[in-house]
Amino acid sequence: MTKVLFVVTAATGWTLKDGSVHPTGYWAEELAEPHRLFREAGWGTTIATPGGVAPTLDELSLGVAGGMPKRRKEIRAYLDSIKQELDHPLALDTVDESDYDLVFYPGGHGPMEDLAVDPVSGTLLVRRLDSGQPLALLCHAPAAILAATRDDGSNAFVGRTMTGLSNVEERFNPFAWKAKWLLQDALVDAGVDCDKGMLPMRPHVVVDGNLYSGQNPQSAGALAERILADLS
């Protein structure tokens, strides 16, 4: 059986430059849709978080920002159906990512708070990237690569091509003007070749060798389907 490790943020808030904390967590569709598609393909799934903390759903992702009411209802129902798995994740520092055929990082603003500075996740990402085995990051999850440094201090993703939530898309959020940094800027500063689609909030997937990335929540299904096509 093909096995997928979902590395999910454990953050409950995103600290802004004025010191306020915006409530956040993982984005519903970005976890639910790939998880559902992989499960329907017969793949096994495991969720891990920093410290083994049950991840927090960003409720904004099931509000108007999460799409049409029928779609949001379907996503919430799916998340409810995997509540046992969500409530009892593995601690990330106990996981051997080499046991999994795919490592998948869903987004939400949470990774900007914890995974971006998490050394355990950073080390896992370096090993996974170097292994040549499939690695996928979606929307804000590429923030996690900021912690993926080599012994000489360089970022392991320098020169790789990937996508993530663009500055234009981030600024659709009314609180974005208070952000300490924006993802697209940080990826470029880290030496990543940051690719984005022509239109915001449309599906856009980038593949660079074993590295898969999706630009935004709308890319969740397209990213999972590309991975399924390549790994099946």
Automatic annotation (TrEMBL):
For the keyword Disulfide bond, the answer is no
Q: Which GO terms describe its biological process?
A: methylglyoxal catabolic process to D-lactate via S-lactoyl-glutathione
* InterPro entries in the cross-refs: Class_I_gatase-like (IPR029062), DJ-1/PfpI (IPR002818), Prot/Nucl_acid_deglycase (IPR050325)
The keyword Amino-acid biosynthesis is assigned to this record: no
GO terms of molecular function? glyoxalase III activity
Looking up CDD domains in the UniProt record yields:
GATase1_Hsp31_like
Q: Mind telling me what this protein is named?
A: Transcriptional regulator
Q: Which organism is it from?
A: Dermacoccus nishinomiyaensis
